[in-house]
Amino acid sequence: MPTGMASRPDGLSGVTELRLHGVGGTSPQSLLDDLQPMQVAGDRIAGFYRTADREGRHVEAYSWGGLTSGSAWRVLWLVLLPFALANLAARMFPSWLPERPVRFRLFLWAARLASFGLTLNFVLLAAAIPIDYVAYQCGGVPSCARWASWLLPPGLPGVRILVGAVVPLLVIALLYVLASTTQNRYDQVKPPAPVPGKERPEQDGRAFLGLSDPGFWNGVAYTRSLTRLHVAGSLALVAALVAWTAHGVRPTPWLPIAMALPVAVVVLAVGALFAGARPVTWLSWLLLGSAASAVVVSALLAVAQPPGDPLGPGPHELPGLQAFAGWVYGGVFGAIFLVPLTLVAAACTRKDWPGVGWRTVLGGGAAAGAVVLLTVWEADYRWVCVGAGLGVVIALVGIVRGRDGFRWAAPFVVLGLAAAALNTVMLATLLLVAEGLGAVRPCDDPYRGGCLPAPAGGETPIAVLPMMRNATPYLIVVPVLLLICFLLYEGTRWLLSGWTDRHEVLTEYGEKSAPAEPHPEWWVSTVCDGQVPGWQERLVRAWPGRVARARRLARVPRDLDLLLTSIVVVGAVLFAWIQSRLWLSGRTPANADWLTSVCAGIAMALPVVMLWLLRQGWRDERNRRTIGVLWDVATFWPRHSHPLAPPSYAERAVPDVQRRLWWLHDNGGVPLVAAHSQGTIIAVAALAQPRSRPERDRVTLVTFGSPLRTLYAWAFPAYFNDALFRRLADGPDIKVACWRNFWCRTDYIGGPVSAPGPVDVELADPPTDRFLYGQPLPKVGAHTGFWEDKEMRRQITMLARRAGTP
């Protein structure tokens, strides 16, 4: 039954204002200013709510926050942030790339290959921790494994390796269950179409239509095939690791047979990734079954190993692990670097190819020069100076280039961040587990001169590859230094803007005519000379500078690409330098012991901090919503590159909005979509598909705080660009009846869309310079103040009246 505040749910004729909230999961009560709105469609996770009619129109809200922050369990998706970044990177290609179909397909294949490599990277570290440090090293010392001697027999290293492999197999099974469950819950929701079931899947590199593709939100068949390919590759990796390391402990002639099947699975999976959006169902099932068979074969090989360990119980790494990890990391980083190579190869066919060539040569030369300088100019701390200096130079070059979009190769940068985040957390977890089991000692592979004699008495020594322990300073120190430089640069500009841009604020507000207040003696202006109480004079004089600083702060997010690019490029250079040292001398660069110890301690604290953050988000709904803000941006895109990423809420939200608009149209309604922040992305995605809209519909679109231009056109220019905005404003196929985009210069997320016609409407923020004597000064609303803006609400009412006029 309807509540006393809501209108009848079947009263759909006339204008209906449909509100879409932004990031953070605003409740329907707050969105409609109604303590008890009535749900008219959807469910408790994502539904449509209605309140009483206002100013001659129905008012509804679509609350989709439950898709990202509704349940306490969803905060655990934060663990899969690297996979979400990899899935994001595959959509960040330049707008001109689809014009070259062959190179476009190569890029998409390289992006999917890099995502596949990140999965193998994760599984490698998730397997190395239980197999090497827990099962092999700790299980081989009776004093360390006394709690599980029945499970980890000291005299059977092959059995211990196999027992340790159960943990990564369980992790793989959990990821597969999560992916399959969320695909059934989110990806199964199909967009509406004139003929149900006739939506075609998204075309990969052929007829690129962007968001207008009828099958853009209907790729569940391919996602499932891709999931099976990733799981098959993961199982094959574990099988190969068990066989290879068991052979390293005691050589066996059956190794080629045990390694042939998992290697073939990985090779065929890499080839299947080239198939694009065409689901390779039969091949994915075949590879999954073959990978499971490879696990069984490796298990039999490990169990058949004779008892005893030739190397004894002394501290040493699992034999063969160092070489195996080197091959895996070589493939992973090779796949990541293949992404910028495909972009450069495609860019060389454009008219501005000389500029691309020179930038590539200069960038590669600078990186190679930094590696040579680090090799020649070797000392404990000079890598810090070289790394930080290189990062600053990259940022300065980016500032000179301007900010039309992401200033460097966005897919490569985001993939690099994904790899850095994954390895930092996993290596930190590795060190934390090793420290908990005994005394950590840096030790090479025993067949490469690793330490073997066990110390008499004391804690159990746990050997850790020097690369895994000594690499922590490079993962911690330089990114922190670059972050400090970035904050100093932006902070200095923010402080100076309070003086340099103050006059602009004074002029802007001073030119506005003073409102006719009923009691003008009670009203005070913050920009005009007049009588100001002494106790408020300091605040009034500081007000223009505060507004100017708010406007400068709103531009800071557009510079984040400088920081991210610097961190990734410097990290790649340091990684290349460390690897060159390993290949040439067999050892990592030296560091001061105190620096290595401090960075190792910081690294080991990272998993603890992450668990604490997850626990805080789990207990408090407001914290869950704060974490959900990250997912609202990172999980918008379908999982067509990394299927094990967190689920895409837009797979359900976009079809939900499309069906509601169609329902209103079929019942004589005229929709007015009022969308804020991330809600504008959902609204535009819903309206961008002509086949998912009824013919001759009349939709009025109102956006505010919109990141269409500032974030999505900046990072995803192939999907959000002038062509899409022009088609929305002028048509012919996806034109809306009217579009207004409200923005203000203090908004750190939204901004103008620069579409043709009178689309953009700038709002003053604060809306006035006048305040009541004794009351607080006018506040900056920034990104969250649109819903309270009286001028915007007045214009929305005018648009609703115009929409209701036949």
From TrEMBL:
Keywords of the record: Membrane, Transmembrane, Transmembrane helix
Q: Where are the transmembrane segments?
A: 75-94, 106-129, 159-179, 229-247, 253-275, 282-304, 324-344, 356-375, 381-400, 412-434, 471-489, 560-578, 594-614
Keyword Membrane listed: yes
Q: Which InterPro entries match?
A: AB_hydrolase_fold
**Keyword Ribosomal protein set for record:** no
Protein name, UniProt field:
Integral membrane protein
Organism lineage = Bacteria, Bacillati, Actinomycetota, Actinomycetes, Streptosporangiales
